[in-house]
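Morning F.,

Quick status update on the modeling queue. The single chain you submitted on Monday has been processed. Sequence for confirmation:
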Amino acid sequence: MTLYEAAMRNFQAAADILEALQSTRLDLVGEARSGLIGRPRLALSGGYNDVTPTFGACLPTNGRAELLIADSGAGVELRCTGIDWLTLEGTLAEPVPAELCYIEMQVTSDRPQIADVFLREFIEDGSVRDSGHLECHLDLDAVSVCKLPLPEIEDDVTSRRVIIHLRQPAARLILDRLAITLT
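Structure tokens below.
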């Protein structure tokens, strides 16, 4: 085997892996942007807010926020009022067997942010089950990656969400990147 043939084989193997990962990746910034099509901004109120079927945000009862396209044109911006926490939630399309979930986050704000990341499973009887809590530090203008181990899917699970719980979010928060990849 020549050096060229070995390099081509490695390139094709890497491309196959990337293609497989793309099919299990949920781009939440892209989802949020699609929820803004035809409107300049979306008002979010206390409680859970469906932006799209796969992306939502939850605020405290007395909180408010606006979701809009970021000035850069690439991300989305959240302008928050009166909140001491905020969750960004990605609904997994169907219970896909996976061992790990990688969460990519890049946030621009006036200060670093801290997020608690976990999996929430919705159970047939109406209850929820949370697992895998991890603390992630979101540095300014840097990509942070968090690896969340996933439990086996029980028979009573109807749906699952990955929850990114921001503690003390900045009043103005730009999500440059937010994606979930299952492996």
